[in-house]
Amino acid sequence: MPTVSRLAVLPQYLLPKGALTNFAGRVAGAKGGEMTTRLIRWFVGKYDVNMDEAANSDIASYQSFNEFFTRALKPGARPLAKADFVCPVDGRISQFGAIEGDQIFQAKGHKFSTTALVGGDDTLAKKFEHGSFANLYLSPRDYHRIHMPCAATLKRMIYVPGELFSVNPTTARGVPGLFARNERVVCEFDTSFGPFVMVLVGATIVGSMATVWHGLVNPPRLPAVTEWTYKKNEYVFKKGEEMGRFLLGSTVVMLFPKDTLHFNDQWQPAGPVRLGELMANLK
After folding, report:
1. What is the pTM of this model?
2. CB-count burial class (<10 Å; 0-12, 13-18, 19+) for 75
């Protein structure tokens, strides 16, 4: 790890990340009246949040910070591109491209394996050997609901306990195996082109992650890898439909099989992305 990156992330190794995250979760979920409104107003100003596109733009009407943070958008605010795969979130591209065998590029000098990412399931990981991946980072100012990049049927969800490092670009450059190291929720889907995986990665002060079919996945923070399997066609999603949300921001990692898609030629690492824009088309 380069010296600059090592020094930048050193405090994260020392801080009580779990305690901070639990405290942040309690604060974010509290209905504090005027205090909550002040917190939201400060946050909107600090991060330049665009409330004009929110379905409810009245800051004072949100009863908790979480209710504000997971706010819905106005209908039509994110039209879907005519593409086989649309971007599932607002945010920035951390990295994307080809999976080299089972290795996913995180940042210069850092890779992690597909097996580690999905919680040790080698059979699942093998479906994506030499496939494609995309890591998308959601900053505090972004819309924090997660949508489907394509039509798909839910097959399985896996909760993987882990660390709670920040997932910002500086940390991605400084912490080896970050996205396969942090707490995460792995969602496996079937589609017309084969399987794909969407991973919701936890982080410092991410109070919880939720899916539309399960509700809150954490807390509680389970001590071991835990799986839920679903009946065929029990949960069927359309392209662009909401599938989950972060209560405080984080990263989404997607895995696709070999020779499935071609990414948007305009995409670049660190570039901004918006929900519904062209992400990729089938090869």
Report:
1. 0.88
2. exposed
From the candidates 64, 132, 166, 250, which is the catalytic residue?
250
Whether residue 90 lies in the annotated active site: yes
The pLDDT value recorded for residue 91 is: 94
Q: Catalytic residue, from 84, 90, 102, 142: name it.
A: 90
Q: Give me the catalytic one of 102, 121, 147, 166.
A: 147
Which SS3 state, helix, strand or coil, does residue 206 take? coil
CB 95 within 8 A of CB 269: yes
Q: Is 130 a catalytic residue?
A: no
If you write DSSP's letter for every residue of 102-150 in order, what string do you get? TEEEEETTEEEEHHHHTTS-HHHHHTTTT-EEEEEEPPTTS--EEE-SS
- Split at pLDDT 50, 70, 90, the class of 211 is very high
Which residue would you say has higher pLDDT here, 273 or 65?
273
Q: In what order do the strands lie in the sheet with 261-263?
A: 85-86, 278-282, 261-263
Specify whether 262 is catalytic. no
Reply yes or no on whether the pLDDT at 178 is more than 90: no
